[in-house]
Amino acid sequence: MIITTKQFFKIAYSKFAVGAYNINNLEQCIGLFRGNLDSQAPFIIQISKGARDYTDKSMLEAIIRAADKLFPEAIFAVHLDHGDEETCCDCIDSGFYSSVMIDASAEEFEKNVEITKRVVDRAHEKGISVEAELGELGGVEENIAIDEKNAHLTDPNQAKEFVELTGCDSLAVAIGTSHGAYKFTGSQGLHFDRIAEIQKHLPEFPLVMHGSSSVPQEEVNRINKYGGKLEGAKGVDENDFAKAVPLGVVKVNIDTDGRLVWTAVHRKHFIENPENIDFRKPGKIFMEEYAKFIAHKNEKLGSAGRLEQVRKALSAVY
Ligand code: G3H
Ligand code: 13P
Ligand code: ZN
Fold first, then answer.
1. How many other C-beta atoms are found inside a 10 Å radius of the C-beta of residue 297?
2. Is the pTM of this model over 0.85?
């Protein structure tokens, strides 16, 4: 069952975080549904602009609709990840998406407000919620000056003003994470003081943590063992999710980790089975491993075992 992202936020705020997982293909989609059902977790499927272009936007939509029928117990939302204005409008008009993210964070504050507000107005007309972004996501190096460090992170005063001016429904905040497999060079991590400060300025407002892959070292090692080259890859400590939840983080974005599982499984399989050309064999292993990975992640997010609670909350309200 597809529900709105806003419904999730109401139910989950300060209790648990909903995993927002990017998908690009059939195997990821199946593994994702299985993993969430195995762990009885609600979830968000994220589709990036790149994913929409990979084959065609209609293909992923069809795969997700098919999975919805195949796994009728599942409760999930469908979200556009890092959209520009044009893509947001396309998703809003399509009637398929629960929510969109407008990412105008590279623009100056005023321009970001202007673009975000236009998307919010259009989305709200159709009952679709909007995630916006403020601040500069990126690993904050340990040896840079405090002022420079602060310049990368989301400013709590600005965040409050931004939400008031745009009417967005959730906010992606820069709190020390970055996208990809190389998030930190040393002992850096999440800036909990900053998240707490943002929550003080925006009480009860849903915050989104991007760049949340933990880059499991066993996957990095497996990839490197079978010919890969991912030296020094490092991610977020997954035990930090539980600390971020009471501070208002209610959606946690994970993409890179799924790519690592895919790469590790396929590298291992083809090195160990050089005669094999049947891609369904590693595909099947990947779906199983990805499902296990998702179930594990949901334990860390606190979303595991919440499906019944979400179902009850939905039926009480609607
Ligand atoms: O934050 C970006 C996501 O990891 C999506 O990546 O644009 O390569 O699909 P992508
Ligand atoms: P990772 O690169 O840490 O998986 O982050 C994904 C993300 O933020 C998608 O929006
Ligand atoms: Zn992101």
1. 27
2. yes
- How would you class 317 by CB atoms within 10 Å of its CB: exposed for 0-12, middle for 13-18, buried for 19 or more? exposed
Among 236, 117, 220, 239, residue whose Cα is nearest residue 178: 236
* Rounded Cα distance, 258 and 21, in Å: 8
Cα 209 to middle of ligand 2, angstroms: 9
**CB 105 near ligand 2, within 6 Å:** no
Say which ligand is closest to the CA of 54: 1
The pLDDT tens digits of the residues spanning 252-280 come to 999 999 999 999 999 999 999 999 999 99
Q: What is the mean pLDDT of residues 7-29?
A: 97
Closest ligand to the CA of 233: 2
